[in-house]
Design goal:
Elements: H1 2-29, E1 32-34, E2 37-39, H2 44-57, H3 77-86, H4 97-121, H5 129-139, H6 141-148, H7 153-173, H8 178-190, H9 195-208, H10 213-239, H11 245-251, H12 256-274, H13 276-280, H14 285-288, H15 292-310, H16 330-351, H17 363-384, H18 392-395, H19 402-420, E3 426-429, H20 434-439, E4 442-445, H21 452-455, H22 479-485, E5 490-491, H23 499-502, E6 509-513, E7 525-529, H24 537-540, E8 544-545
Parallel strand pairs: 3-4
Antiparallel strand pairs: 1-2, 5-7, 6-7, 6-8
Helix pairs in contact: 1-4, 1-5, 2-3, 4-5, 4-6, 4-7, 5-16, 5-17, 7-8, 7-15, 8-9, 8-10, 9-10, 9-15, 12-15, 15-16, 16-17
């Protein structure tokens, strides 16, 4: 057994090293080079946080634009504050995203040790299951996409894994831990919706840990409530709202039933693409095991899925893979998956007495464990075929992520806008992260993340279109407000499918068309407010075209 454990430990460390190389390669190939300058930009939502972080570090407060009345257009304050730390140092703007990407890689790397510890608590010594779980978690592509593109998902994954380990140890030792609730409370400062995990854990322990029930009931409630009340008070004092602006943007102005219908649809779509048989496989574990730790893993996975459905899912399910809301518990799902494989393996061996030494088939035990790991790897390939087998080119790092294309588009537009405007120019954007950050211009938010007016309006949805086109946080706009009233100097891009609606408000705008932007923008055009003193007209005169020159389509 000692020799086997040593081999498994070596394989674990090889997996960790392999993941470190994988993450480094992932970060390297998502670098964007423009005129010989490398840019390490992030997912656009993460860039919104970077915009807030830069203003915070610059002494302008936790705001989107310096000098603005505060509006909470972020949903990850603690992560944003962490980003602000790097903005205190003289790091060039093109390199600023790199330490955030590296942080995501480190968080996921540390998480692998937690996955190993958790799984070891659930299996016998010398089991191959921890190694299989680590492989699944390390190389499941969506976890890397969200974390290595600068989102707070990596931190939430690590917090969730730490909480799982603390719960399991507490159940085994019969001890109550204040630190578990401190951790869960602090997680709501990273994202407020982590309260779902906190409440699920609290309720579970109140029911299943009778020895410490009173402590869980009282202290768990007080700690979680304290964190929620504290941040709500600070939010009201600073932003003047009890909830983030993003809450009103995503959760109001729409029928709850329609929102939930959309959430169900995108989750079913995920299950189908994930492979419905493999998705349902872990539920067989309930035939073999109903111990408290296993039930807890099922519970938190179910709760996060239910939350995702309730809020209507994310905006990016059309790209495939687990969304940001339940990616934080996908490691728990992966653990359940490999535990199920192990139980089935043991059941097959026992059924045919193949593991009994007196029959001389003990070698089949080792062979069956090798088969388990191989099946895990094959399943991983299936999980990473996000929409189809062509998606595997991304997980194999043959191409940078599909989001890198959009990041390059936004970056190039931002640099162009910065070049043709002065520091007092104001721009209207729907890519509310990268464009303001890299253009370094005051911005208006077309889709309302940092605009109270739009966030409180009705959500737009055309019932004749597929329900997946209803994208939470991306379905509110108001051109009378954003263009007519605010009068931005430059509109780099109109929200797709709404140009006809915007046209009446674009009469006072000059159209410029750039050949190099035709791959990024419809007909390669942007809109510049006619006569704006904040635009360098000498630079854009060669690009001005007449409305009559535009294609009729």
């Amino acid at each position: 057994m000692a020799k086997k454990e040593k081999i498994l430990n070596i394989l674990f460390w090889l997996t960790v090293i392999g993941y470190a190389i994988y993450a480094a390669t992932f970060i390297a190939i998502t670098r964007i080079d423009i005129n010989g300058t490398p840019y390490f930009t992030l997912f656009d939502d993460a860039m919104i946080s970077m915009q807030y972080a830069r203003n915070l570090a610059g002494g302008n407060g936790l705001v989107w634009n310096a000098g603005d009345i505060p509006v909470e257009g972020i949903s990850n304050p603690l992560w944003t504050i962490y980003m602000a730390v790097f903005h205190l140092f003289p790091i060039p703007i093109n390199w600023m995203g790199l330490p955030i990407k590296i942080t995501g890689a480190i968080l996921l790397l540390i998480n692998l040790f937690f996955i190993k510890k958790i799984t070891e608590h659930l299996t016998s010594p010398g089991s191959v299951v921890p190694l299989a779980a680590v492989i699944l978690v390390a190389f499941y592509y969506p976890l890397n996409v969200w974390s290595l593109h600068g989102l707070e998902v990596g931190l939430l994954i690590l917090i969730t894994s730490a909480a799982i380990l603390m719960v399991i140890r507490g159940l085994v030792d019969g001890k109550f831990s204040f630190w578990l609730y401190i951790l869960l409370g602090a997680s709501t400062l990273v994202r407020i919706d982590m309260l779902a995990l906190g409440l699920a854990t609290w309720g579970f322990l109140v029911i299943f840990d009778p020895v410490n029930r009173r402590k869980h009931l009282i202290w768990g409630f007080l700690i979680l409530a304290g964190f929620m009340m504290g941040q709500t008070l600070l939010r009201w004092l600073y932003y003047g709202d009890f909830l983030p602006n993003t809450y009103y943007l995503k959760m109001t102005g729409i029928s709850p039933l329609l929102r939930i219908k959309r959430g169900i649809y995108v989750f079913v779509k995920f299950v189908w693409n994930f492979n419905i048989i493999l998705f349902l496989l872990p539920f067989l574990l309930l035939i073999f095991r109903r111990d408290k730790a296993v039930l807890y893993l099922f519970l938190i996975f179910a709760v996060q899925v239910a939350y995702s459905i309730y809020v209507g899912g994310d905006a990016w399910e059309h790209r495939g893979g687990s969304n940001r809301f339940f990616s934080v518990v996908m490691p728990a799902f992966m653990i359940l998956f490999v535990l199920t494989l192990d139980e089935l393996r043991i059941a097959i061996l026992d059924r045919f007495h193949l593991g009994n030494p007196k029959f001389g088939f003990k070698w089949l035990e080792t062979l069956s464990e090798i088969a388990l790991v191989l099946f895990t790897i094959l399943s991983l390939l299936n999980f990473n075929a996000l929409l189809d087998t062509l998606s595997l080119q991304y997980s194999f790092l043959q191409k940078p992520t599909i989001y890198t294309i959009g990041e390059e588009k936004v970056l190039r537009m931002a640099l162009f806008v910065r070049d043709i405007t002065d520091e007092d120019a104001r721009i209207l954007v729907f890519a509310a992260g990268g464009l303001p950050y890299y253009s370094q211009r005051y911005s208006y938010d077309m889709l309302g993340k940092s605009d109270r007016v739009i966030a409180h309006e009705e959500m737009r949805y055309d019932p004749s279109k597929p329900i997946i086109d209803l994208r939470p946080g991306h379905s509110k706009w108001d051109y009378a407000h954003s263009i007519k009233n605010l009068e931005p100097d430059v509109i780099p891009e109109i929200w797709p499918g709404t140009l006809e609606e915007a046209q009446p408000y674009l009469q006072d705008y000059t159209i410029i068309q750039m050949e190099e932007f035709k791959r990024w923008l419809p007909n390669g055009i942007m809109y510049v407010r006619t006569g704006s003193p904040h635009v360098n007209w000498d630079k854009i005169n060669p690009f001005i075209i007449q409305k009559s020159d535009l294609p009729s389509s």
